[in-house]
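Anyone up for a design puzzle?
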């Protein structure tokens, strides 16, 4: 099984597997609504691919994601 590595610039390295919901990583991201409404977990996707699990309401730049609305598809590099 392919492993996916999530790096945060805070010094964490967490090993996760494909199709992991990023909102389950409570120790890495700060969440409030967990539904894409508030934007509190907004992060910059440096490289990799995620799949939206729901359409966020918060306004995002082209390189931003809301971890509460995503699951991993490939290796990720995220500035959180």
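Challenge accepted. My sequence:
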């Amino acid at each position: 099984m392919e492993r996916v590595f999530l790096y945060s610039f805070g010094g964490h390295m967490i090993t996760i597997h494909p199709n992991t919901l990023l909102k389950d990583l409570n120790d890495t991201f700060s969440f409030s609504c967990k539904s894409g409404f508030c934007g509190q977990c907004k992060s910059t996707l440096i490289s990799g691919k995620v799949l939206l699990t729901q359409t966020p309401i918060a306004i995002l730049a082209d390189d931003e994601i809301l971890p509460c609305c995503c699951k991993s598809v490939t290796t990720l590099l995220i500035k959180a």
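A detail worth pointing out: The chain is about 0% helix and 30% strand.
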